[in-house]
Please model this.
Amino acid sequence: MNSTKLNFGKKPIVKINKSLDFFNDKPLFPEKLEKANNMLKKIGLPESKVFNKQ
Amino acid sequence: MNLERYELQSGEELEVFEFVSEGPRGRIPKIVQYFPTNYKNVYHLGFGDKNQVTGEIDDTIVSNNEDSEKVLATVIATLYAFTDKHRNAQVYATGSTDSRTRLYRMGISRYFDEALEDFEIFGELESSWELFKLERVYKGFLVKRK
Model:
């Protein structure tokens, strides 16, 4: 039986469109970004070997 | 069977992605942005529809284009592309509505075993984090490539 997989291991093919770099420093979802910052300020980050590895 | 994904476009930094959903409601441009938070290496994942006339982004609209699986697979593909380039990034995602957050949780749950091969996944509780557990309700999600 076949199962449905996302095929995570396969590197996605991404066509580069340099015009999209214009948005790199412009938040397109400012309200949600603010909520994320507030949440991080409130509860911080999880303790984890993976997460704390820089 | 591998799930289909839409063709992706991105800037060179792989922080902003676009793709086009195709279905009964037509072609709907979608945009995914990974934007840095105030915390080092922590990025917020934003996802929404791009209005073809005004160019405005709407992350609350429900497209009903009957391709949610393909859209979800495409958004996850952006997560792979982004974390391939930004290896130490931690990515936070939450839905703009409870139903969308539930959709994200269902997506993670459905492909949980596969996702765990490459990511550590935490679920956001009221005032803390826990390692993601199936069937739990979370306010948001934080992931990092292993």
